[in-house]
Amino acid sequence: MSESAETSIFAFPKLSDFNYGSWKTDMKVLLMEKGCCQFILGTEKPCSEGASDREQLAYELRKQRSYTTIYMGVERKYQALIADTEDGKTAWDTLKANFEVQEPVLQV
């Protein structure tokens, strides 16, 4: 499969060795558009106990969408990093831990 075919569902390149900074911003915006960004930020509240079956299903579908969107937005060689979870926040945090450059701490 060519690179253009692999990225055709996204308006931005999949996560690769050198694009984490721009990918993170693009993915966050895509998750906002899909209504599931709150899951990766950890701000989504669970359904209340009195939620209807329809509300619970909608919640679960949005939660799954947060993970599947991230998974599909990662180059195949890095999907193994997040293949053992189905949780968007866990996947997001795992990718952050593996790709985000840590700034050195200056001690005074």
Identify the notable features of this structure and list them briefly.
single chain; 108 residues; mainly alpha; 6 helices; disordered N terminus
Account of the 3D structure:
With 108 residues, this protein is an all-alpha fold. It has one domain (20-100). Helix content is 55%, strand content 0%. The chain has helices at residues 3-6, 20-33, 37-41, 53-72, 76-79, 88-99. Helix 4 runs parallel beside helix 6. It is globular. The model is unreliable at 1-8 (pLDDT under 50).
Short description:
The chain has 108 residues and is an all-alpha fold. Helices cover 55% and strands 0% of the residues. It has one domain (20-100).
Outline the fold blueprint.
Elements: H1 3-6, H2 20-33, H3 37-41, H4 53-72, H5 76-79, H6 88-99
The string of secondary-structure elements, in order, is: HHHHHH
Distance between the termini: 51 Å
How many whole angstroms does the radius of gyration measure?
16 Å
Uncertain segments are 1-8
Morphology: globular
> What amount of the residues lies in strands?
under 5%
Number of domains: 1
- Summarize the amount of helix as a percent range: 40-55%
Kindly report the average pLDDT value: 88
* Helix run count: 6
Regarding quaternary structure, what we see is single chain
Class per helix and strand makeup? mainly alpha
Number of strands: 0
* Major pleated sheet: none
